[in-house]
Specification:
The complex is a heterodimer.
Chain A (H helix, E strand, L loop, with lengths): L7 H12 L15 E5 L7 E7 L2 E12 L10 E8 L13 H16 L10 E3 L3 E13 L4 H15 L1 E3 L1 E7 L2 E6 L6 E3 L7 E8 L2 E4 L3 H6 L2 E7 L5 E7 L6 H30 L12
Parallel strand pairs in A: 4-6
Antiparallel strand pairs in A: 1-2, 2-3, 3-6, 5-6, 7-10, 8-9, 11-12, 11-13, 13-14
Helix pairs in contact in A: 3-5
Chain B lengths: L2 H4 E9 L5 E9 L37 E5 L1 H6 L1 H4 L7 E4 H10 L1 H13 L4 E4 L17 H23 L10 E5 L3 H9 L4 E2 L1 H6 L33 H10 L3 E7 L6 E6 L6 E4 L1 H4 L7 E6 L45 E8 L4 E6 L9 E6 L7 E4 L3 H4 L2 E9 L8 E10 L3 H11 L9 H4 L11 H6 L1 E2 L5 E5 L8 E9 L2 E9 L10 H9 L3 E2 L4 E2 L4 H7 L7 E12 L4 E18 H9 L6 H23 L4 E2 L3 E5 L6 E6 L4 H24 L5 E4 L9 H9 L9 H10 L7 H13 L4 E4 L28 H13 L7 H4 L1 H33 L4 E11 L3 E6 L4 E6 L12 E3 L4 E4 L2 E4 L3 E9 L7 E8 L23 E2 L3
Parallel strand pairs in B: 3-4, 3-6, 4-5, 6-7, 15-17, 18-25, 19-25
Antiparallel strand pairs in B: 1-2, 8-9, 8-11, 9-10, 11-12, 13-14, 13-16, 14-15, 16-17, 20-21, 21-24, 22-23, 24-25, 26-39, 27-28, 29-30, 31-32, 31-37, 32-33, 34-35, 35-36, 37-38
Classes of the chains: A alpha+beta, B alpha+beta.
Chain lengths: 290, 961
C-alpha cells in the first residue's frame, strides 16, 4: 500500500488524538468518513456500483454468464472475483505493482463469501448439474485513500445488490441437451438476496486503542490491526490480521467484538441506503460527470 | 433542450449461438426537428408537403371527417395486398411499424417498401422512434408488442395535438383527425380510452364506398372467425424450438413435402441423404403441409408402415364440404402385404412454408350470394383454398390468382384471399398466362437494359472479326430443321478429302459472341435458362434479334459460328477432331422432309444432295455403333396441332413423323456434344459444364417389370444394354403398339438428366445412361439453352479464342447456374406438356370422339389409359354412370387386373374409349374418358360412330437427349 512519509511529530500528534478519541479530521475512533455510493451506472454490466470513501474510489461491475456448475456442487452457481489496481490510483501500481494487493483483497473476498451464511449459491442454479449462473465480479480500484478493504466490500455488496439476473426458462429437455429460453423482456429479471452479504471492518491498533476506517496517515502510525468480515446476520465469516506488529489476545477479542458490532451497523445502514436509492424516481445517472 | 434529454439507451438481452447471454446497450438519440409531413402544419419546417394533404378527402363512410390514417403493424403483416390499392391516401407510416414488419416478415417488408416507393405521395414515414415527443421506453412488465402498440398510440395522439395547434381557427367538424387502423382488439380498446379514433382495417376498407372491390383483397382474418371454438381437425404443429432440437437429435427428419398427383390423401417427404422417401397417408399425417413445404416428419413404428395406395383419389366433391373431414378408411386401402411396406411417417411441424400465389378457378358454390367460396388451383398437388369474396358471380367465369394466408387447425382447407383476375376461363391468352405463371416461366418482355446490349442494326461482320476466325464461307454448308423454324442453331457440311476419308463439320451459332459475360443480357438469359416452346408461342431466352436473326444460321448470309470439324473414315471412325471459331455461309435451310427428298431423289446430283447422302450414310453407321453400346430408344407420345390460321385454335392433331434425316441430324449433334464434352473436361476438370443421366435405381423399374410380366415377357433391366435388347425383343404381332407402350413405361422409370459442374461429382457418375456415353454435354443449341452458351465459353477459352472470367472457373458458381438451369428445364418441359394439354382441351371443345386406347395402369378403382392419337392420358373411374356402384369389379393386385363378369382388363389391353369435354361445369372443364369397348353394363357409353379399325401407327421414337 502506498507509503506516506510522516515525521515523528506528526505521528505523535495522531497518537494523541486517538488517545483522546478525537482524530485529526474530527472523528471519534468508531466513526467512518463520508461515503458516496451510486449503483447501476455501468449500463453494459448486469450490476454495478461506484463507491467513494473519502478519497478511496472503487468501481465494481458484475457480469452474469451461463456456465456448467462444478461437479462437486451441482446445485450451485459461482461467484468469481477479480481485483484490478489501476495505475491511476498511485504510481506504485504501475506494471505489476498492484498485483500483490489485488490478490490479497481478492483472496479475502473469496474467503468471506465462501461461508454459507453470506450468499445462497443455490439461487444461481438453473438446472441441477447442467446449467448455472456465474457472477463475475470485477473490482477496479481507481484511487487509494485508505481503508481499501471496507470500501471494496461495500462496493461489491452494492453491485451485487443491483445485479439483475435475466430470467431464464428451461424450455425443453431433449436427451441431455437443455434448451434454454431467455425472456425477451429486459425488465424480467430477478435480484439476489443480498441481505447477508458481508461487510468488512478494518480495525487499526494505535497505542492502546483501535479505530475504524483509518486514513492513510493513520495506517502509517499503526503496526497491526485486523480485518473482520461480518455478515448481515452478525456472524463473522472471515478475519485477517494485517500489519507486522503483534496483538494481545485480550485486545484481539475486544477488537473482534467491536468489529462485529460496527460491521452489523455498517451492513444495516448500507442496506437502508441501497433500498432508498432503488426506490428513487428514475433519474439520470451521475457517474463520473460530477 | 439539454443534451441529456436527447440521449437514451435501448437495452436488451440476447443469447448467442454459443449459449452466452449478452446484455446489449445501444445509444438512442432523439431529435426535436422531425417534421410531421402535413401540408397544414405551420410549426414544422417543411414547405408544401405533398404527402399529407391540407384537406384530406376520403370516401370512407365510417370516418366521414377529414382524417389521416395511421396503420398498425398487424395491418401490414396480414393485409399487405390491400395496401397496394390506390384507395390509400394520407397514410402515416410509423417507424415502429416498419421496424416490426421487417423483423416479422421480410417479404411483407419488401412489398411495403415497393408500395412506398411507387406511391410516395400517399405514404408519409414518420420516424416516431427518434422524435423526442413520441419515443416511449419499455416499461417493466410490458411486452415488446405492447410497447410498440403504445408507441403507435403515442404517435397518434401526438399528431392529434400537433395538428390541433395549426387549425385553431377552423371549426371543429372540419378539423383533421388521425385514425388508427388496427386488427388488435386490445389496442383499439386502449386507443378509445386515450381518445384516439380507431377501427378495424376490414371495417374501414368496407366503408370505402369508392373502392367497393377492395374488400375482396382482405385476407381472411382468423381472429374473429368462429373457428376458434370448434374442434380442431388437425393435430397441432410442434413449436419451432422443439422441431429444431428434434431434428438435431435425429428424432425428427427434415425434408421437402411432395403431395401425390393421384391421391390427395397421400404424399411423400424426401429427406436429404436418404434415397427412399417417407410415405404419408391421411389428413392427420399430412397435417396441413402444402406441396413444396419444408417439413419435420416423425417416423411411425415399423408395424404401422404401409405402402402407397392403389387408389386414384381426387378431392373431388363438386360441392363445398364445409369443415368436415371425410372418413378416410374407405379412401385408403390398408390391406397391404408386409413386403410392400415402406417407411411411413407423419408430419409434426412445418419448418418453412413454400407458399406462393396460385392460379385457378372458383368452385361453384351452393350459395352463390355467400361470401365463403372454395378455390380450385390449376396445380393438382395444391389443396383447394377457402377464400372470401363478394364477387363470386363475376369471378366464376375467370381464372384468378389466390394467395394462402394461413391454415388453422380448425379449417379443412387453407384460408386465403383473392389477389387478381387473369381473364376468362377457356380464353387461350388467359390459359397461356396461367400455365406460364404456374410453371414459373419468366415471360416478361426484355427490359431496356437487356436490349441495350444488342448490336445495332444494320449489322455486318467486321474485317477484324473475320481475321480472328477461320473463314469457312467456301464450304457447302446447309441446315436441316423442322418446318417453320426461325432459330437455326446448327448447320452441317460434308466433303470427301480422299477416298475413304471424309471431313464432316458441325457449325453452331456463335451466341457467346453476342452474349458477353456479366452483362444485363447475360444475366437475363441465365435466369431464363432455356427457350420455352408452347404450342402457339415461343418464349425466347435471348431477344428475337439474336434468336431469329443474328445468331440464326440463315441461308445465304454470313454468320458467326463455332465449328467442330472431324476427319472420319468410311467406317465412321474418327481420325481427327478440331474446334474453331469460324465464319460460315449456309447454302440452304432444309426442312427434314426436303432433305429426305434430296437424299432419296437420285436425280439430284448437286453438291448439297451429295453431302446429305454422305452424312446420312455415316450417321447410320454411327447410330448402329451407339445402339450396340447400349443406348436406349425410348418413347413418349408426341403430337403436333394443326392450327387454324384465323382463330389460332387447333383443328387437327397429327403425330410428328420420324424421318431418316431427323436421326441423321441428331447423330451428328450427339457426336459434337460428346467431342466437346471430352475437350472441355480435359481442360477444366473442376468446372466443366456437363450433363449426366443417372442410372435409375432398380426399384424404379418395378411397375415396368410387372407390366412386362402380364404380357409374358421377362425384361432384363440390369444395364442399359440389356434393357435395350429386352425392349427390342418384346414384340407381339397382335398388338403392335404394345412395344411402344413398353417404351413409354420404360421412359417413366428413368431419372431426369441434369447439368452439373464436373468438380462436384465423381467421374464415374458422369455417365449418360440413355445415350450410353461416359461423358456428355450440351453444345449444339446455344440459342435456346443457356448451358450450351456456358459450354461455348469454356470451349472458346480451351482453344484460346476467348478470355475467361472468375465465375466461369468457380465450380460453386457454375453449379449454382446449373441448378437454376435444371429447374428451368424441368419447368419448361412441364409448361410444354401443359400447353399441349390445353390445346387438347380446346380441340375437344365441340367434339366427342371414339378412339383406340391402351391401358397404362390398372388401379383398384380406376383404369388409366393412354390415347396414342392425342398423347392423352385419362382415368376411367369404375363408378358406373349413374353413380351407384352396383358394378362389382374384382381387383387382382398381383397381375394387376380387374374382372367384371366375363371381362378382364389388364395392362396394355387395347380398349375403345369415348373422349369428350366434360362441361358439366362451364368453369371447370376437363377431358372425360368413358369406356366403349369392351362392353360392361352400367359403365360403358354407347359408341357414337363405328370404331375405327385402323391400327394406330407407332409414334415418333425419341431418344433421351
Amino acid at each position: 500500500m502506498a507509503e506516506i512519509l510522516l515525521s515523528e511529530a506528526e505521528k505523535a500528534f495522531i497518537h494523541h488524538g486517538v488517545q483522546d478519541d478525537l482524530r485529526c479530521d474530527g472523528r471519534t475512533r468508531l466513526d467512518y468518513r463520508p461515503i458516496i455510493l451510486e449503483t447501476g451506472l455501468v449500463s453494459n454490466a448486469s450490476g454495478s456500483a461506484r463507491l467513494r470513501l473519502a478519497n478511496s474510489d472503487i468501481l465494481v461491475g458484475v457480469k452474469v454468464e451461463l456456465a456448467s456448475p462444478s461437479p462437486d456442487k451441482p446445485q450451485e452457481g459461482r461467484l468469481e472475483f477479480f481485483v484490478d489496481c489501476s495505475a491511476n490510483a498511485t504510481p506504485e501500481f504501475e506494471g505489476r505493482g498492484g498485483e500483490d494487493l489485488a490478490n490479497e483483497i481478492c483472496r479475502f473476498l473469496q474467503r468471506s463469501y465462501a461461508s454459507g451464511d453470506t450468499i445462497n449459491l443455490a439461487e444461481l442454479s438453473i438446472l441441477s448439474g447442467q446449467q448455472c449462473w456465474v457472477l463475475y465480479v470485477d473490482i477496479l480500484i481507481l484511487e487509494c485513500g485508505g481503508n481499501l478493504y471496507d470500501a471494496t466490500f461495500m462496493a461489491v455488496k452494492s453491485a451485487l445488490y443491483a445485479t439483475q439476473i435475466p430470467s431464464i426458462k428451461v424450455a425443453t429437455m431433449d436427451g441431455d441437451q437443455p434448451e434454454l429460453e431467455l425472456s425477451d423482456d429486459p425488465y424480467d429479471t430477478k435480484r439476489l438476496n443480498t441481505e447477508n452479504l458481508p461487510c468488512v471492518v478494518t480495525l487499526m491498533k494505535i497505542g492502546n486503542h483501535y479505530l475504524v476506517d483509518p486514513t492513510p496517515e493513520e495506517e502509517c502510525c499503526s503496526s497491526s490491526g485486523i480485518v473482520v468480515a461480518v455478515s448481515g446476520n452478525k456472524k463473522i465469516t472471515a478475519v485477517r490480521k494485517i500489519g507486522s506488529g503483534s496483538l494481545h489476545p485480550d485486545s484481539l477479542v475486544s477488537m473482534l467484538k467491536t468489529g462485529s458490532d460496527v460491521g452489523a451497523k455498517v451492513n444495516k445502514t448500507l442496506m437502508i441506503k441501497l433500498l432508498e436509492e432503488k426506490n428513487l424516481e428514475k433519474s439520470q445517472k451521475v457517474g463520473f460527470m460530477r | 433542450m439539454g443534451m441529456d434529454d436527447m440521449l437514451t439507451s435501448k437495452v436488451f438481452l440476447r443469447k448467442t449461438k454459443r449459449g452466452k447471454v449478452l446484455k446489449v446497450v445501444r445509444e438512442h438519440y432523439l431529435r426535436d426537428d422531425l417534421w410531421c409531413g402535413s401540408d397544414l402544419c405551420k410549426k414544422c419546417g417543411q414547405e408544401n408537403s405533398d404527402v399529407l394533404d391540407q384537406s384530406p378527402v376520403s370516401s370512407s363512410t365510417l370516418c366521414a371527417f377529414p382524417h389521416y390514417v395511421v396503420i398498425d403493424t398487424n395491418v401490414v403483416l396480414h393485409q399487405i395486398d390491400v395496401l397496394e390499392s390506390p384507395a390509400w391516401k394520407n397514410v402515416i407510416l410509423l417507424q415502429t411499424v416498419l421496424d416490426e414488419t421487417r423483423k416479422r416478415s421480410t417479404n411483407n417488408y419488401k412489398k411495403l417498401k415497393e408500395i412506398m416507393a411507387t406511391r410516395k405521395d400517399n405514404f408519409y414515414v414518420f420516424v416516431n422512434e427518434h422524435h423526442k415527443d413520441t419515443y416511449v421506453e419499455r416499461k417493466p412488465g410490458e411486452s415488446a408488442n405492447d410497447r410498440n402498440d403504445r408507441a403507435i398510440r403515442k404517435a397518434c395522439s401526438w399528431y392529434q395535438t400537433h395538428l390541433e395547434e395549426s387549425q385553431k381557427g377552423i371549426e371543429k367538424k372540419k378539423r383533421i383527425k388521425v385514425v388508427l387502423l388496427t386488427q388488435d382488439l386490445k389496442n383499439r380498446e386502449q386507443a378509445s380510452i386515450e381518445g384516439i379514433p380507431s377501427h378495424k382495417v376490414d371495417e374501414y376498407v368496407k366503408s370505402l364506398k369508392d373502392f367497393p372491390d377492395l374488400q375482396e383483397k382482405l385476407a381472411a382474418s382468423h381472429s374473429d372467425s368462429n373457428n376458434e371454438n370448434r374442434e380442431p381437425l388437425y393435430p397441432e404443429h410442434l413449436a419451432p424450438t422443439r422441431i429444431m432440437t428434434g431434428v438435431k437429435s435425429g428424432k425428427l427428419l427434415q425434408g421437402i413435402f411432395h403431395s401425390s398427383r393421384d391421391n390427395f390423401l397421400e404424399g411423400t417427404v424426401s429427406v436429404e441423404g436418404q434415397d427412399k422417401s417417407i410415405l404419408l397417408q391421411g389428413h392427420a399425417s399430412l397435417n396441413r403441409a402444402v406441396d413444396g413445404d419444408v417439413v419435420a416428419v416423425e417416423l411411425l413404428p415399423e408395424d404401422k408402415w404401409t405402402s402407397p395406395s392403389d387408389i386414384v383419389l381426387e378431392d373431388q366433391e363438386d360441392q363445398d364440404p364445409g369443415d368436415e373431414i371425410e372418413k378416410e378408411e374407405k379412401l385408403l386401402n390398408n390391406s397391404t402385404k408386409s413386403k410392400d411396406r415402406i417407411p411411413t411417417g407423419k408430419i409434426v411441424g412445418i419448418i418453412r412454408r413454400k407458399w406462393r400465389q396460385y392460379c385457378g378457378i372458383l368452385l361453384p358454390s351452393v350459395l352463390a350470394e355467400g361470401t365463403r367460396h372454395l378455390f380450385v388451383p390449376a396445380e393438382r398437388k395444391i389443396p383447394k383454398i377457402r377464400i372470401e369474396t363478394r364477387q363470386a358471380e363475376s369471378l366464376s367465369s375467370q381464372k384468378i390468382i389466390v394467395a394462402i394466408d394461413s391454415w388453422p387447425r380448425t379449417s379443412r382447407y387453407p384460408l386465403g384471399h383473392f389477389v387478381r383476375a387473369l381473364g376468362n376461363i377457356g380464353d387461350k391468352n388467359t390459359e397461356n398466362e396461367v400455365l406460364l405463371l404456374e410453371h414459373d416461366v419468366p415471360h416478361h418482355s426484355f427490359p431496356e437494359t437487356v436490349l441495350a446490349c444488342l448490336p445495332s442494326m444494320p449489322w455486318v461482320i467486321s474485317q477484324e472479326e473475320v481475321k480472328r476466325r477461320q473463314d469457312l464461307r467456301h464450304l457447302d454448308i446447309c441446315s436441316v430443321d423442322p418446318p417453320g423454324c426461325t432459330d437455326i442453331d446448327d448447320a452441317l457440311h460434308f466433303r470427301e478429302l480422299s477416298p475413304n476419308l471424309y471431313e464432316i463439320g458441325v457449325h453452331i451459332a456463335d451466341v457467346s459472341h453476342f452474349v458477353r459475360p456479366d452483362t444485363a443480357l447475360d444475366k437475363e438469359s441465365a435466369n431464363r435458362g432455356t427457350t420455352v416452346y408452347l404450342v402457339d408461342r415461343r418464349i425466347d431466352m435471348v431477344p428475337e434479334l439474336l434468336s431469329s436473326n443474328l445468331c440464326s444460321l440463315r441461308p445465304d448470309q454470313d454468320r458467326l459460328a463455332f465449328s467442330v470439324i472431324w476427319e472420319v473414315t468410311a467406317n465412321a471412325e474418327i481420325r481427327k477432331t478440331r474446334f474453331t471459331k469460324s465464319v460460315i455461309r449456309s447454302r440452304r435451310a432444309f426442312t427434314y422432309a426436303e432433305a429426305q427428298c434430296s437424299i432419296d431423289d437420285s436425280l439430284q446430283q448437286n453438291e448439297l444432295a451429295k453431302s446429305l447422302r454422305g452424312l446420312n450414310q455415316l450417321a447410320k453407321i454411327m447410330k448402329k455403333n451407339r445402339m450396340d453400346k447400349g443406348a436406349l430408344q425410348l418413347s413418349s407420345p408426341e403430337i403436333r396441332f394443326e392450327v387454324s390460321t384465323e382463330t389460332n385454335d387447333p383443328i387437327d392433331v397429327i403425330s410428328k413423323p420420324m424421318l431418316d434425316t431427323n436421326s441423321m441430324v441428331e447423330e451428328f449433334m450427339l457426336l459434337a456434344n460428346i467431342s466437346v464434352a471430352d475437350h472441355i473436361f480435359k481442360h477444366f476438370p473442376e468446372c466443366a459444364v456437363l450433363r449426366r443421366h443417372p442410372v435409375p435405381p432398380a426399384s424404379n423399374f418395378e411397375p415396368f417389370l410387372k407390366a412386362g410380366k402380364t404380357q409374358g415377357f421377362t425384361l432384363d433391366v440390369s444395364s442399359n444394354k440389356s434393357l435395350a435388347a429386352s425392349l427390342d425383343g418384346a414384340v407381339k404381332p397382335d398388338n403392335v403398339y404394345m412395344n411402344t407402350m413398353l417404351r413409354i413405361l420404360a421412359t417413366r422409370c428413368m431419372m431426369q438428366a441434369v447439368y452439373f459442374s464436373s468438380g462436384t461429382v465423381a467421374q464415374v457418375d458422369f455417365y449418360h445412361y440413355g445415350l450410353a456415353a461416359p461423358i456428355y454435354t450440351h453444345f449444339t443449341s446455344p440459342i435456346r439453352r443457356y448451358a450450351d452458351l456456358l459450354v461455348h465459353r469454356l470451349l472458346a477459352v480451351a482453344i484460346g479464342a476467348d478470355v475467361t472470367y472468375t465465375e466461369l472457373l468457380n465450380r460453386k458458381c457454375v453449379q449454382q447456374v446449373c441448378n437454376n438451369l435444371n429447374y428451368r428445364h424441368k419447368m419448361s418441359q412441364y409448361a410444354q406438356r401443359s400447353s399441349v394439354a390445353l390445346h387438347t382441351h380446346l380441340f375437344f371443345r365441340n367434339r366427342v370422339q371414339d378412339e383406340d386406347a391402351y391401358v397404362l395402369y390398372v388401379r383398384q378403382n380406376a383404369v388409366q389409359v393412354l390415347i396414342p392419337k392425342y398423347g392423352l392420358e385419362g382415368s376411367i373411374y369404375l363408378k358406373g354412370n349413374d353413380g351407384d356402384s352396383k358394378l362389382c369389379f374384382v381387383y387382382n393386385p398381383d397381375e394387376p387386373s380387374l374382372t367384371c363378369g366375363n371381362v378382364t382388363i389388364r395392362t396394355f389391353d387395347r380398349v375403345v374409349v369415348q373422349v369428350s369435354l366434360d362441361s358439366k361445369y362451364v368453369q371447370h372443364q376437363k377431358i372425360a374418358v368413358h369406356l366403349v369397348n369392351p362392353k360392361i353394363e352400367g359403365l360403358c357409353v354407347e359408341a357414337i360412330e363405328t370404331p375405327k379399325t385402323m391400327e394406330p401407327s407407332p409414334k415418333k421414337l425419341k431418344g433421351v437427349k
